[in-house]
């Protein structure tokens, strides 16, 4: 991975994680307080456990009404594989590129968990790469089980049509330990007067009715645990089935999608490499594999024949 976006460290060493591991959280979109129903239902931990069928993931659940960040809680429990931290509200959540954000109360899913592997060396790196793609795939598939046709935009934003539904962040604590944060818009009603009305959505908005957060989270955990038991190529096959970018005209950004860079260019998304890189064709006909860049789908994009 020649391009990186996140430096991670322990007490004794520091290294960079592949850019795919720095995917954005839904929280990136939640930069100011939102209005929620005063009758918002609190997460039912007993119902969640009754739905859950995993071996490890989510079996240990640490539920909070309000925390600074579920990522911080998970980091403090980094030795416990599968432990999950869920909060109704976060006051100092962290999104892409360290952006600060605030989440409102009892409507969506804001959670973090610890994922550990016994693999070492190159096998551990492959496991952590697989985790990045398995998370977004599991999110999309869980949302589909709830009745919403969610898709994934490389590397791991989850969309419905052109509206963002979910995002995630992965911090690699060491070669064998990842801290994962996920946000999913579940029962959030976005006022039409809010600018996010045109860029984000929720499951309840799409379905016209509330969605069980307990069932959704249990589905996510079960699907992710199943995917992580599969080899990388199988995960990428599942990921491709829920992809929304292949065949589309895209803009490749070298800094961020909010800024212009002299090396930015237009391309067409072709396929995924074995390690999850995105193969694209530039306007001059040359093919490139992206691993650290950001991409946006061009407004006029159409599927390539």
General description of the model:
The chain has helices spanning about 45-50, 70-75, 120-145, 205, 215-230, 230-240, and strands at about 5-10, 15-20, 60-65, 85-90, 95, 100, 110-115, 150-155, 155-160, 165-175, 175-185, 250-255, 265-270, 280, 285-290, 295. With about 300 residues, the chain is α+β, with helices and mostly antiparallel strands. A seven-stranded mixed sheet has the order 3-4-7-11-10-9-8. Helix 1 (about 45-50) packs across helix 5 (about 215-230) and helix 3 (about 120-145) packs antiparallel against helix 5. The longest helix has 25 residues, at about 120-145.
The SS-based structural class is: alpha+beta
What is the straight-line distance between the termini?
Answer: 30 Å
Q: State the shape.
A: globular
List the quaternary state of the chains.
Answer: single chain
Order of adjacent strands in the largest pleated sheet: 3-4-7-11-10-9-8
Query: Order of SSEs, N→C?
Result: EEHEHEEEEHEEEEHHHEEEEE
Beta percentage is 25-35%
Rg is 18 Å
Summarize the structure.
The protein has 305 residues and is of the alpha+beta class. Helix content is 23%, strand content 30%.
Which properties best describe this structure?
globular; 5-stranded antiparallel beta sheet; 305 residues; 6 helices; single chain; 7-stranded mixed beta sheet
Secondary-structure blueprint of this entry?
Elements: E1 4-9, E2 14-18, H1 45-51, E3 61-67, H2 70-76, E4 84-90, E5 93-94, E6 100-101, E7 109-116, H3 121-145, E8 151-153, E9 157-160, E10 163-174, E11 177-184, H4 203-207, H5 213-228, H6 232-241, E12 249-253, E13 265-272, E14 278-282, E15 287-290, E16 294-297
Helix pairs in contact: 1-5, 3-5, 3-6
